[in-house]
Amino acid sequence: MSELENKAKNDSTISAGEKIAQKIKDDKGLGQGVILFIIAFVVCFAGSTLLFPKLLYSKKEQPFNFDHYLHVYEAGDCEACHYLREDGSFSGIPKLETCMECHVEEPLGVTDDEVVFVKEYLAKDKEIPWHVYAKQPDCVFFSHAGHIDTGARMDFNECHGPIEETKTSRTYEENRITGYSRDIWGKNIFGIKKNSWDRMKMDDCAKCHKEETGHQGYCFQCHK
Amino acid sequence: MTQDNHNNAYKFGMVIDLDKCTGCGSCMVSCMSENNVPFKEDESNKRDSITWMRVYKLTNGKSFPDTEIAYLPRPCQHCGGEGDHGHSPCVSVCPATATDYGYDTGIVSQIYTRCFGCRYCMGACPYHARYFNWWDPKWPEGMEKYLSPDVSPRMRGIVEKCSFCYHRYQAARDKAYYHGDKDHIKEEDYQTACTTACPSNAITFGDLNNPAHKVHQIVKPDPHPDPRNHHVVGKSRNPKVFRLLERLGTNPKVYYLSEREWVRKQGDHYLEGEWDKIKNHHGTTSHG
Ligand code: SF4
Ligand code: SF4
Fold this sequence. Notes:
Strand order of the largest sheet of chain A: 1-2
Helix content of chain B: 10-25%
Low-confidence stretches of chain B: 1-7
Bound molecules: iron/sulfur cluster
Oligomer: heterodimer
Distance between the termini of chain B: 53 Å
């Protein structure tokens, strides 16, 4: 009798329950398999959350630390530095010229950052090469005029977060592949967002546009 | 937070006076520099040159001394498609929605980051208005500094075309927002590069829906469908004005103007005797 026939004969003589019990008893590797799977899962998960972002993003420090909290307090409001020009365009990050409206000749304050600012930039009449956290990809057109007081009357916090309370400039992270700021995808590597300003992808713009205007807009509304 | 997209719809278009056009090519040059159009090391092979705006030479085909020449600048026609419902030939074939019809402006977009270069749209466009990037753009050193930050440059493997200088519309809209009148973009605030560059003022650009705009006054677009061909909407009621391949029903927003009949006749292909039948037909109010 061949092995196969033997097996078939044996099988027919034992009940289904016994069969399963026997199988489990035979399967000594099961416990190990589960453990191995869990280990592999943890390794991959940790790898993707901890290691992957490190691989994907390069870190860049700002030229020197900028204290938004202090500046808002001293200058009175945001518009002192970030304002709409008369042609409706947005001034963005101020040029040295704007800084020099207050920081003339002598340093204001005694911090190390002030020293860097005065020595490296003010004295040399050199623009400060800030890394812009909120910088969108090149193909994006964003209208500040359409979103702030002149348009949808949105609060700047909705996109930029509580920036006016920050006393230090966080490290800028740049996607090594695309060159985009990490703020576009968001800090959370899985794209989970808790606050409206956590992420600024096209879907986030479209979602808000759909909710607020009933239409996500045609391509050229936000592209150039 | 309030905003709405339901502003009055514009329908931007242009009319080009072919009797004024001298064929100097200023529109082509201004278009290229305005829109960061890349160029090749050797531009003598015109088959793969990128010319959003291209000037064609027309002739009446007669020999001396009756020879006449005209020049026809051709940007993207921003077709409204059959019945002017926004189904432009290119838009309706794009599998990636990389080009769409802006119902708020009548402008056909091109989104470079979305296009994957299948070139269906190039095959669909009856006006050869679309161009393929065979190479990554390369500018001589230092020249990147002259690029416009308002227009994103394109990469190898995608299609580009005239956008009616859409970034100028965006800027005009920003200005309108600033002055609290976002629904009324002023005629002078939004003009394309070619329009402003033309030394003989052959190009007139504006809102075809706005009777106060010069382009509307010249074109006098017929709001009703052409009774002879219902796909055609916006036919000019000016007997001197025509569109290219108008009978296709692509409903271009670029119109041409000429006093010369032979020039107007070049806007389409006509069978023998056909031209005489249709040449006096100008929209619903006139009887051809
Ligand atoms: S080449 Fe680009 S724009 Fe044209 S049909 Fe293909 S994906 Fe669409
Ligand atoms: S002219 Fe060509 S590219 Fe322009 S809208 Fe018409 S079909 Fe599309």
